[in-house]
Structure formats: structure tokens, C-alpha cells
Design a protein that fits this description.
The protein is α+β, with helices and mostly antiparallel strands. It contains 16 helices and 38 strands. The radius of gyration is 29 Å and the shape is globular. The protein starts with about 25 loop residues before the first helix and ends with a helix.
């Protein structure tokens, strides 16, 4: 794409590690995309912002945050394998955001390529209607291989043209189009059949194309190109269908028609609905889900950006540059973002920051720009407090009128609090990014005392860049524990750390969960002097088992406080809000570390009651936070916590003659449960096994599967649930973790 758009002088190649978008050393050595990269180029008088995302399930967060800001997407499908497991995962992400898609069926030059089957796969497994726009002129039998010379000629079903790639131009840059007539024989017949299939499919989705069809006496070929193109665009923008373009990227075939399809059928920023937004004050509900604190089901969610020309921007990605510091990738939804502009971070309590510089990114290179306008993507330098998922507002945005007054009152009245104590969102808030919890973990430690500080700085940079990564300190073992989404994820992190710091990594382990098996309650009274000031709070916490099918925690709090030595109860609204927020934070932080092995607590309902208020100065938010945490710890100890292990849904494909060995391995040493066994839709003669297996048993499975299937087996997996461990398993896990 970049070469044909005139951005690069030579073609890049994944195999040789010369692509523009995959610029990290790990990406070039492995031949995969690990980190999403953005680039801007022009095509047909339009400016295109392209974000290249990873395909591996371990980096699904990179896909999620890219989908959050995209207007359209291109899904790459293998003409041989068809729709694969990870394709389904990414497709569900695009569907969740309502993003119109184009499908590019690639690798048409490979042995066994069958584009008709791939298109059928798209319709059956992705649940959409396929509108095939470009087909090969030479029709092959199923599983037939197209020779390079046969990939030169294609037909365009929309324009009724022949597309010819110049054989003397190995880059594929020279493309000729010729309008087909009945005198062109076979090429015209192929194009006519392709046009007929396209119009018939459109007629099932679009009423206007039916009128055009009837106006030309039911002749598919005579329907105007303008009418067909408009119908395809309407079907695409309404997510009723997706255009399909065929090609072979390795042979430099099919890329220009794909770019044309992006311009013709995917929406511009002005054609997409504005994202939903809520006000910051609506975030504090009586019942909150700890597993996804950014979600809200409030009916107050609204499309609030349409009538305001003040800046509203969304930070969807943060990277750290050694010289420039944090580089915040933003999508501007309203107004414009100018260099040297003061921004209000509504997500972080209205903190003000200045955008020192603005950049237009071209993968790993950049160009300084003066402004980022609505609908565009750019990078902001100088934002030290902004994180992935934050909303940035103009200081004069209308939603800040009341919120900033309240925030200012909180800061002036609670002068003893630190910045971390005041974090309630203010102003308009765009919905954030859903980050799944990490499921794999390993210990990491510096090789020597002099490496401890560089390690801490390197981990801080990685956490800033990757919200799916987490780091915690185990007080009992004295270890720093690194948690990630999978083996490959942690392996990439390990390589990045070792490139700059002398560190040692422990054995890969699985991150379990803890859950209460019975009800427990505790009352705690907090009474300490901090820096010469009295600090007092009191409350009761009751914890009980909750829905076993929901891996989250619900917190309930009353609307009243119990006043001590102050029956009148000074009615400051900001006081009540800050106390509720602090209690919720204390409960949340305590539940992140259970009493059994320090794993996060799930499937629990926490009820807070009898909140005692001793007056403004003794009962600080910090006191309530500490009091709530201690009460939760004591209540959890009475709940007989049980250990839950993550269960992975594994989809395995292997030749039929290796099925016995694979099934024996799953049912035997890996203690899995086979859910289904059928013929593979992707590879002829192969079997598809779906099984539920404990995630701990899947560590190192990639190498084991290659050994069992002579290198011919493939698999994908994702964590779908957590299940209780047996007493024997629990005792063994405790022994392995604690050493006794």
C-alpha cells in the first residue's frame, strides 16, 4: 500500500524483515506484528490513517484499542485456510464497535487456494453477506493453484472492467483497466456472471438497487456502475454486508483494488456516528463491577459531541521514547488540538497538561505538525499523566462548567490530601477500553543491586505502554511478579527487558483466582495519628459468594453515614462523594490480593455498612480507604476461600492420522475435556478438536503439539472461564507456591 501510494520507493517484505510497519527488532526477527503502528498516506485525493494491528491472541489489547478509534477495517483472510480462530476474535471486536469492514482474501497464489470456499467461510462463520467485487478472469477448479501468469488478469464486477497487471513490472505498480464488451469473449462472460451474483446479493439487502434493476428490464450488466457502487457502499456502512477483494500480496496483485475499495466503501469520519459519552459524575453508581470499572449501563449514556466545537479527544495508545518521553496517540472527535495547547484530562480528575508538540507518525518516524483536526489521529508530546483510555478536553468545554467548580472545591477543602486522593472523573467522558485480566505470570528480579533502579524504570515504561501487563510485589517471597496475556506476550516482554537491563526470569506460571465459599463479615475501626494529625474511620464489611458464572465483584454501599459527636452531619456533597470513592478504592485494592495465595478475588458480593463519621479532619478519605481494606482482609479470612484455575478453550487442527495421539494427550496428562471433534473447515483432510483444558496444562503446548503431529498441528486458545480446583490440586499449588 505504502509503495503504491508513493510513500516508499521500494517494496518491503515480511520474510526479509524490511517492512515499514513492523519496525521493532522482535517483529522483524519473528516475522509477526507485536505492536500496533500508525501511518498516514494519501490515495485518490483522500488522506488515510492506517493502523496495522497484531493477529496473535496474546496481543488482543493492541487490536482493541485500535478498534476503539477506527472508522473502518480490512480483514485479511487466507485463501487456503479461510476464517481462522483469531479471525473470529478480531471480527467480534469490530462488530462490538459497529465498524464497517472489507475482506481481502490473500494468498491466491498458494497451492490449495480456493476463494469460493473462503467467501463461503466468511458468510457462514463471520455471519455477514459477502459482496465479491473482483474475481480472477481464469476460473479454476476447487483447490487449483493459480500460476503467476494466470494472476495477471482479473475482472471488476462493479465497473465491468478487466484489470491487467503488467508482467514486466515485478512491483505490481503498473495496472491497466479496460472496459469489457461482448466481443471480449470469456473475460466478458466471467465479468457478467460476477456482476449478476453481486447485483442479486445486493437486491436482497438494498431496495434502491432493485429499482435500478427493474428500470433496465432486469439486465444485471446494464445496471449502472454508479448505482452498484452506491448500493455496495450503503450495504457496507449499514454493516449488512462486506465487500470482498481477492489478491496475492506476495505477487503484488490486488492491492490497488483494495485501496480503491477502502476509499469507495468505508466511511469517512463525518459519516460515522459520534462515540457515546457520559458525564464524570455518573461514574459512581451504588453497585460497581471491579472487573470492568469503566463500563456503565447508565441510561445517561449519550451522544454528547455533536453540537460542541470544543476539543474532545481520546488517548488510545501510549508509547515511551527514550528522548521524547511519553508519546500519546490521540483521536480527535470534536474541535481541534493545537500545539502548546492546555488540555484537561477529565478521566484523571481534571488535571491540566500542556501539549508541547504534535506529531504525525509514519511507523517509527515522525513529522511535527501544528494541529490535529477532528477525525484525525496524531501524537501528543508533553503529557505526563495521560494514560490509555483517557478523555482530553478543551479547558472551556461546556461539560466542565460545573465539574471544575466541584473539583476546585474538593482540592481547596481537602488541603491535606495528595493528588492521588482526588481522582474522580470530571466533565465529558468517552467510553474507555476493556482490558482483559492477565492470566500468565512469572517472577522477575535484577541480577545485582545496581540493576534494580533501571529495572523499575523499564517496568514503569512497559506498564505505561501496555495496559494488559501488570506488575506486583509479593511481600511474602520478596519477588516482583510480572503478569501478561500469554506465553508469547511475556516472552516478548522478557526480550525487551533483557535488551536494556540485566534481569533473571522465573518459571512461567498461571494466574489463579480466589473466591469465597461462604459468608464472612468483619467490623474495623481505624484510629491512627498520621503526621501528627488524628485519622479515624469505622465501617463493617460483609462478603458472600456471588454468581458463579460471572468472574467479577459487586460492591454495595449505603447512602448514609453514621455521625459520631456531630448529630447535625455537615452536608457537604463533595465530602460524601469523596468518602464513597475512597471506600470503593479500599475495597477494590484489597480484593486484588486474596488471603490464600494473593490472587485476585472474584465471584463475590461485598456489602459495606455502618460507616462511621468522626468529623471533617479525623475522617479523611485516606482513613476510609485504609479502614475498608483492613475490613475486607478480615472478612475474607472467614470466607474459607477456594482456589479457581483458569480454563482455556483450545481449538486444535491436525491431520486425521494424528488425532489419536492429540486426544490421548488432552484427556490424559493435561486433564482436559474434549467438547467436539469434526472435520476441519480450513484444511482438507484435517480434523478440528475443541477442548476445555486447564491453562496451567497448556504451558509449552506449542512445542508438544509439534512433536505429536510431526510439525503439522496448529492451535489457538483463549481463557473462557475459571473452575474450582480439587483439594489435591490446591494442596500441590500451595506447596509449589509457598515451598511448604
Amino acid at each position: 500500500m505504502l509503495h503504491y501510494a508513493g510513500f516508499t520507493r521500494k517494496l518491503g517484505d515480511v520474510d526479509s524483515g524490511s517492512t515499514v510497519m513492523d519496525y521493532l527488532p522482535a517483529e522483524r526477527s519473528r516475522g509477526i506484528t507485536i505492536q500496533s503502528a500508525a501511518i498516514t498516506f494519501g490515495w485518490r485525493d483522500a488522506q488515510v490513517h492506517l493502523i496495522d494491528t497484531p493477529g496473535h491472541v496474546d496481543f488482543t489489547v493492541e487490536v482493541e484499542r485500535a478498534m476503539r478509534v477506527l472508522d473502518g477495517a480490512v480483514a485479511i483472510i487466507d485463501a487456503v485456510a479461510g476464517v481462522q480462530a483469531q479471525t473470529l476474535t478480531v471480527w467480534r471486536q469490530t462488530s462490538a464497535y459497529g465498524i464497517p469492514c472489507i475482506v481481502f482474501v490473500n494468498k491466491m497464489d498458494r497451492e490449495g487456494a480456493d476463494w469460493q470456499r473462503a467467501v463461503k467461510d466468511v458468510e457462514q462463520r463471520l455471519g455477514t453477506r459477502a459482496l465479491v467485487l473482483v474475481e480472477p478472469e481464469i476460473e479454476k477448479l476447487a483447490q487449483g493453484k493459480y500460476e503467476p501468469s494466470e494472476l495477471r488478469y482479473w475482472v471488476d464486477a462493479v465497473t465491468m472492467e478487466r484489470i491487467e497487471y503488467d508482467a514486466s513490472d515485478k512491483t505490481g505498480a503498473t495496472v491497466r483497466r479496460q472496459l469489457l464488451t461482448p466481443e471480449d469473449g470469456r473475460a466478458y462472460e466471467v465479468a457478467a456472471r460476477a456482476r449478476e451474483r453481486l447485483v442479486e446479493t445486493l437486491a436482497e439487502l438494498d431496495a434502491e438497487i432493485v429499482d435500478e434493476f427493474l428500470a433496465v428490464d432486469g439486465d444485471h450488466v446494464r445496471v449502472s456502475t454508479r448505482a452498484v457502487r452506491a448500493a455496495v457502499r450503503r450495504a457496507t456502512l449499514s454493516n449488512m454486508a462486506c465487500p470482498v477483494v481477492l489478491g496475492a500480496a506476495f505477487r503484488n496483485v490486488g492491492v490497488q483494488p483494495l485501496l480503491d475499495a477502502v476509499i469507495d466503501y468505508l466511511p469517512s469520519p463525518t459519516e460515522r456516528p459520534q462515540p457515546k459519552a457520559i458525564s464524570g459524575s455518573q461514574k459512581l453508581n451504588e453497585s460497581r463491577e471491579i472487573s470492568d470499572s469503566r463500563k456503565t449501563k447508565s441510561p445517561a449514556s449519550r451522544n454528547a459531541l455533536t453540537n460542541d466545537d470544543k476539543l474532545v479527544a481520546f488517548a488510545f495508545k501510549v508509547t515511551v521514547d527514550a528522548q521524547r518521553g511519553p508519546m500519546v496517540f490521540v483521536r480527535v472527535y470534536s474541535g481541534s488540538l493545537d500545539a502548546r495547547m492546555t488540555l484537561v484530562n477529565g478521566t484523571r480528575g481534571g488535571i491540566r497538561e500542556r501539549a508541547s508538540k504534535l506529531l504525525q507518525m509514519y511507523a517509527d518516524s515522525s513529522e511535527e505538525i501544528r494541529t490535529i483536526r477532528a477525525g484525525h489521529i496524531g501524537v501528543v508530546l508533553g503529557l505526563k499523566h495521560t494514560r490509555t483510555g483517557d478523555t482530553l478536553l478543551h479547558p472551556d468545554h461546556t461539560s466542565l462548567d460545573d465539574a471544575t467548580v466541584v473539583a476546585g472545591r474538593e482540592r481547596s477543602a481537602m488541603h491535606m490530601l495528595t493528588e492521588e486522593d482526588v481522582r474522580e472523573p470530571v466533565g465529558l467522558q468517552l467510553h474507555g477500553i476493556n482490558v482483559p485480566p492477565p492470566v500468565f505470570m512469572c517472577a522477575v528480579e535484577a541480577d545485582s543491586p545496581k540493576d534494580e533502579n533501571p529495572l523499575a524504570q523499564a517496568l514503569a515504561s512497559l506498564l505505561l505502554e501496555d495496559p494488559s501487563l501488570s506488575v506486583s510485589f509479593d511481600a511474602e517471597t520478596g519477588q516482583t511478579v510480572l503478569r501478561g496475556m500469554g506465553e508469547l506476550h511475556l516472552e516478548i516482554v522478557r526480550d525487551r527487558l533483557r535488551a536494556s537491563v540485566n534481569v533473571t526470569f522465573g518459571t512461567m506460571r498461571v494466574s489463579f483466582r480466589e473466591a469465597p465459599s461462604c459468608t464472612g463479615s468483619a467490623r474495623f475501626d481505624y484510629d491512627k495519628d498520621i503526621a501528627g494529625r488524628p485519622s479515624r474511620a469505622g465501617l463493617r464489611v460483609e462478603i458472600e459468594p456471588h454468581d458463579r458464572n460471572a468472574n467479577n465483584v459487586f460492591v454495595e454501599m449505603p447512602d448514609e453515614l453514621v455521625a459520631v459527636n456531630n448529630p447535625a452531619m455537615v452536608a457537604f456533597p463533595w465530602l460524601h462523594t469523596s468518602i464513597r470513592r475512597s471506600i470503593w478504592d479500599g475495597v477494590h485494592n484489597a480484593l486484588l490480593r486474596g488471603t490464600l495465595l494473593g490472587f485476585a478475588v472474584v465471584r463475590a458480593k461485598v456489602r459495606v455498612s455502618d460507616i462511621v463519621y468522626y468529623g471533617h479532619y479525623p475522617s479523611t478519605p485516606a482513613a476510609y480507604r485504609a479502614c475498608a481494606a483492613q475490613a475486607v482482609f478480615q472478612a475474607l479470612a472467614q470466607c474459607s476461600p477456594q482456589l479457581l484455575e483458569p480454563l482455556a478453550r483450545a481449538v486444535i487442527q491436525c491431520p486425521a492420522n494424528h488425532v489419536g495421539a492429540v486426544l490421548s494427550d488432552i484427556n490424559g496428562s493435561r486433564m482436559g475435556r474434549v467438547l467436539s471433534l469434526d472435520d476441519s473447515d480450513d484444511v482438507r483432510g484435517a480434523k478440528r478438536i475443541v477442548a476445555q483444558v486447564p491453562l496451567s496444562a497448556m504451558i509449552g503446548y506449542s512445542s508438544a503439539l509439534r512433536s505429536l503431529t510431526a510439525g503439522s498441528g496448529t492451535f489457538s486458545m483463549h481463557v473462557e472461564d475459571y473452575g474450582p480446583t480439587t483439594k489435591q490440586q490446591r494442596d500441590q499449588i500451595l506447596k509449589d507456591s509457598l515451598g511448604y
